[in-house]
Amino acid sequence: MEILVCVKRVPDTSENEIEINKDGSDIERDDLVYSVNEWDNYAVEEAIQIRDNVGGSVTVVSVGDEDAEEVVRREMAMGADKGILLSDNAFEGSDGRGIANILKAEVEKGKYDLVLTGAQADDGAGQVGGMLAAMLDWPYASLVNSLEVVDDKTIKVGREIAGGNLEMNEIDLPCVLSIQTGINEPRYVGIRGIRKVASIDIPVHGAGDLGITPESVGESGAKVKRIDYFTPELGEGAEILEGSTDEIIEKLIELLKAKGGIK
Amino acid sequence: MTQPVFAYILYENGVADDTALELLTAAAKLNPDASISAIVAGSGAGLDAVCNAIAASYAEVWKIDNEALAYVNAEVLRGMLVRILPQGCIVLAAHDHFGMDLAAGLSNKLDAAYLPDAVDFEGIENGKLKAVREEYGGQVSTHVLCDISKGAVITVRPGSFAPDESKSAGGQVLDKTADAMEGGLPGGARRFLEVVAAEVGDVDITKSEILVSVGRGIEDEDNLEIVSDLAEAMGADVSCSRPIVDAKWLEKARQVGTSGQTVKPKVYMALGISGSFQHIGGIKGSPFIVAINKNSRAPIFQIADVGIVDDILDFVPELTDKINEIKG
After folding, report:
1. Which end of chain A is more exposed for a tag (fewer CB within 10 A), N or C?
2. What is the ipTM of this complex?
3. Whole-model pTM?
């Protein structure tokens, strides 16, 4: 099975507190630690497991600037066979539809049976997979939390719905799936693994290579534009307990007792 | 002409989803001058019951009734909606497991804009809707401008708008099945098989009065001991947020959230839980919420009653010791 996995480089929220810059035009990016979007790791792991079971190859693709190459390389260190970077000044400022447009052009250059994305990203909203499928006219399933290859034309997927229940579907290939966390346990990638793939060439495709008219992507093609960042209003918010740890604990135990929190 | 607004309404067992009346509020806030209609798809008596109930709130209810929709498959529904929706309209759906399945592709097929996961609307100017979204798990908010001049599909975060309970519409139900089915049943490439119910765990956290709930801040599986120690001292059960289940450190049945269990304890201790809206969506019945998190910006502090900014790995063992000391 030929599998394409779309990945994104994002600020790692488990490593950073996200702060807004002075004029609210962006978040403070100077000291941010970036990594591959958490959901995408699960998608790459799933693709590798499918390939190991039924054969084929896994290609990882990312839309971004030269910094995005490091996440493509990281996913290759996990075991993906190929990496592609889609990069062009014309792509900057793309909304979800623009990104889907760029990916669609890359998908059509290959012969893929399966395209995977992460279900969402911390700085996004889980839209690219669904759009990409619609643009390709391929079937789509979101929030996939179990996957089983039936034969070379069909797979069986479980979608995570309310209450932890799984909605089972059969879906024809080729298709696009968005992968939910928890579907597998993504393998660890060490420095050694990264070194092994350090010299592998990662081709860069721009608008011209992909046959994309610059107006259809980037800022000019975007229907949704972020205009500023702001700190959410706290509403009532929590009463923050202050003082020494002993004082805080004493106060907290008092409150818990009053609310029936200690049996 | 004002663009009409349609709200897609999910239902289960003959009862409309909680978001049905939230979408009504959202639609009116989006554009107070627009006509607002509901669309409900399904089959049989349950569908009729929902349509009639919803007509009390929506002036017009579009019904799509087909056996193939007994369990609504977004791939099937999308094809039908493309056939019946007027050009340039605005479609609202909840940003949940169904909306996320339906909406992005629908926007593409309608050649409309897609605005995902909106939490508020702040008016339309020159064909552009100003809306509020959140990023990075609610740590920051953003204003976005969405060009809705050629139509838009918008998913609305559940719980962001208060439900409109006025039920003053006295609306009518219109059967749109024939139009939706013209050209045959769409979306055959994905076929619904069955719903597999979540596994039942050894503890039913939906019945717990006190929950000690643990999130990513616990850092390592071995540290879970401090959580179970606190739970034991308090007489509580242990629950968790999603990352703990993803890491397979606790069973799925202990996960609180929209994709896990809905709990209604008296007291909820959120330890190292940032408080994504999916997690908060699983806490009902207004419990007394205590949040302990080293990140002072964690969204959990917005909904908690009491907050402590500290590392749970330091704070929790001390709290446990003190409680045990008091209890003797």
Report:
1. C
2. 0.94
3. 0.93
